[in-house]
Design brief:
elongated; mainly alpha; 5 helices
């Protein structure tokens, strides 16, 4: 029982990231959902194409996280990717907020969640890399 709890705790950052990123990917790839819930109008094929590419990028990164959860030899790379993914998204949002203004509440939540997950992933990486 204790080893299962340790396994969950070790992978918690990846589980949380998956639970946020996979639905976000699907939302980004679904123009009708974007229009309805996020004040984003998809009115060109190029914009739709860009959003589908982002959707697949998010899903591809999620596959690496899943590999990191189930195959211990991929845990470090999955965690490093999580750090890079979350912190670069957060930094991009900070850059946009400083240049473009404040976005809607969902994106404000996003920046907070990305910073928290990025720094939590650094903590996890340091904690569990030391033990191996």
């Amino acid at each position: 029982m204790k080893s299962k709890i340790n396994w969950i705790l070790k992978n918690l950052h990846l589980f949380i990231s998956l639970s946020i990123v996979v639905p976000t990917a699907i939302i980004y790839g679904s123009p009708s959902i974007l229009t309805k819930y996020l004040n984003i109008q998809v009115n060109t094929v190029d914009f739709s194409n860009m959003l589908k590419a982002i959707m697949c990028l998010y899903l591809g990164i999620s596959i690496v996280w899943i590999l990191g959860i189930w195959k211990t030899q991929y845990w470090k790379i999955a965690t490093q990717l999580n750090i890079l993914f979350m912190l670069t998204l957060a930094i991009g949002r900070v850059l946009s907020m400083s240049m473009d203004g404040f976005p809607t509440g969902g994106y404000i939540f996003g920046i907070i969640a990305e910073f928290v997950l990025g720094f939590y992933s650094i903590f996890q990486f340091k904690k569990y890399s030391r033990n191996e």
